[in-house]
Fold each of these.
Amino acid sequence: MFARARAIAATLMILSALGAIYVAWLLDPAYLPPSLSTYLFKNLGERPYAAPAATAELPKLQPEEICPPGNSEWRNAQTIDGVDIKGSLLCEPDNPYEVAAFVKGTNNVSMGTLMETQLTPDAVVKGRDLDGDGDPDEIHIRLEVAELNGHSPDAKIEVPGYSIAPGVKPGFWAFVPKARGMATRNLETFEAQPMLRMPSPSIRVEQGDQVKITLENTHYLPHTIHLHGVDHPFKDANGEGNDGVPLISEMPIFPGEQRTYDIQPRQDGSMFYHCHVQPQSHVLMGLNGLFVVEPNRPNNPLQTLNIGAGQVRHPSAAVRESYAREYDLHYQGIDYDLHDILKSSNDPRVVSKRVHREYNITQRKPEAFILNGRSFPYTIRESLVIVKPDERVKLRILNGGADPLYLHTHGHKVIETHYDGIARPEANQITRDVVHVGPAQRVDVEVRTVNDGLHNYGPGAWLMHDHHEPGVTTNGIAPGGHISLIVYEQFLGENGIPKVVGDVTPLFTEEYWRGEVPVFSGMDPRGLLSDPVPTASTLMTTLLTALLVALLGLFFGSLLWLIRSSGGASATAKK
Ligand SMILES: [Cu+2]
């Protein structure tokens, strides 16, 4: 009896399995996973002829403005409260009033200037000139922790909203200057106010300055600041931990608490700062930035913070001695599995459990990549390297993430002048076109825009991109990631957007980054590579799909029957 049931079940299984393979082969490959469709094609041969599918109409897109209207007067070179601020040709330049406040100190600028920013009067306090060389040497910086694209208990929105590309909004935590007012731009939007952004600001101090950095922990999780590569004592003058490492040098700064770190750096160079609480997640969530110690020079008040990194609009005396322009470039990758945890709950206990115990960094797979807090095409609004012929331009490159970075500068071979803030002897400086920067490393490079066939091949809008190819993608789609360009001024449109030959508007849509727009749309005049539509055989495909599901059901049903009947048989045999 049971032997016969088993035989029937086995036969049904074999027949349904064979049937399922045949039906799958008949199905339009568009409905099968590519690997299965290739396997069937290889093993069962060509499918019967079917008319090719029609080409789908391109989706109707409503692209964002490539350069939205903003504060175009911010682009001019100007003097505010006596502070000289270099011009910026970018579509979205830095707020020059912030630059003035960071150079003079938020305690020293006029109220009018401060009101053009969202800084508090104690965000960057500058005190005495201790060595009498014409610039303040007492610097007190106050930082907070901002959460971007967090959970809202009220609606399905991210607050405050921060997009790295159209519709792409991973969650972040960033150090931000102490701010006043609302976290959003105004009452009508959920968009974050401009200072709340990625990456954490670049910090600039002068060699020998007496620097205090106070972290006022406005966040719901504990954090610290570790000064990576910056000369600092292990304990401060009061015997308190000064290295930022929980359990080892100090206890973490819990919500509502604050701690002040003391530094008087003797060594100049491009360094790094980051949170050291659970660094496998906190550093990558955005709590890291560039920390630059400038050589001591007379009359050298510095731009203490550079919001969003990018062009330094008030470069130091030492930089001005050798370079026409200076840019801070901060690179980082994003694994949504980590960054989107904070959208899952507004209960700190749940977020803490998921971030610190359930997320396993060894399974990390980044899907997005940012330069100065944005992905291409947004990088062309605010993170271009703009140059003119016959200049020397300084780039400070920081890899703030956990991914390799092999930065290729089209049209240029650049000179690596400093590794991790230490100058290389001139004879040992390497000139190359792919700059490798490992996690936490800093490489300073000199871009020489002299058209000599070596350092530069002439003016252009030259791409600058990671040759570790994931870095040029967003959600697996290109051209995205942290692509940017080295653009000669003559290749820049009036609005600061590079003059390129193609139409980039499809990239300024959310649909593009959801994978709904064929990548050649806008360049493929006959639409040859638009998407196929399911053909006239849609009905047939539906029937075949139903049959496939039925056959698979039969297969598993028979399998179950087989298992149960053999179980029954062994139970009977035992009796
Ligand atoms: Cu932290």
Note: The two ends are 16 Å apart (CA to CA).
Amino acid sequence: MNRLLIAIFVMTLVCPSALYGQGENSQKKFNIVIDPGHGGKDPGALDVDDKSVEEKDIILSVSVKLKEMIADQIPNVSVTMTREKDVFIPLVERAKIANKAKSDIFISIHVNSLRPKDHPKYRSVKGIRFYVMGIDSKDEQGSMTALRENASILFEDDYQTTYAEYNSDTPEGKIALKLMQLNTSGQSWRLAETMEKYARRELPKASSEKMINSGNIYILRGTTMPSVLVELGFITNAEESKLMQSSSYQTQLAQIIVDAIKDYKNSVENNSSSISVVTPTETKPEIKPDTTERPKFYIQVASGLTKLPVTDRSFKSYAGKVVIKHIGNRYKYFVGETEDYDKVIEMLPEVRRQFSDAFVVAFKGDKQISIAEAKQ
Ligand SMILES: [Zn+2]
């Protein structure tokens, strides 16, 4: 665990919002970093039929359009690009650029590909996908993308030392990662979901059932702001590769991202005032002890030694809706309060979409009781 990770670790314990500098000043520009992946000696994925068609060129031209369209369509923003030419930039540098720019959001642009062994009909898979950082990923698609996009590291000269800390298998690595992730993952998911919404509207043909995936993607891990990696489409699909090379489709793709940023920026700016006035003591809708009360069921989504405000971004779409209870020496966070057991069971899968370890608990007043007892 290097010093940086320890610093992040400590900062996170002391001040959960330390990592994203909240917009106290509403005049502050909204900073966007666009990261066209690959470049220079790293071509990215190649078209199967025409090897001269390279990922790095498609994503650069979409990113340049994106930058111009953002400037035209969204007021009060600044846009930084990690590269504007065909040059190779190490992954670690890209994350540094974003962190230095104090970026509000980070969007990495890529093109997807599959190998024959990935999928029996690998050339027929198509569509736009969004990836967010996730370390306990059982998500096969996310892991595959992580492997492929991380492979860019191998083009760097000194990758063994630069990425020595990248190994998330060590316990410290896992903890540090988890903390970094907790701080921004709610916002990253929100940004990805906003992109998904516009993608479904704009490109119904390129939509699939599951458009958001998570994986241990280095470039998303190194950034400390909400980050999404967009895979515009599959270069291994002949039809989609053609489309992605056309200027009009590139504009359509960029428009999805512009609309999503606009929407996301509005929601963050409208929310930030309420976040800043909430203090931990006010955000305490704890259940009053009442022995005559009927048992209630909750879904526990998190617990920890430090107290987070109910509006904390770690609660993802449940921010502002969680109930906190102080039990033993831990703060536990619940959603879905109800007296109806069937209802809580019905809600569970939805909650688990965002909190995979969520589980049902029961309380009578302030006392935790067994589910069986509560059901009587
Ligand atoms: Zn890529």
Note: The first strand starts at residue 30 and ends at 36.
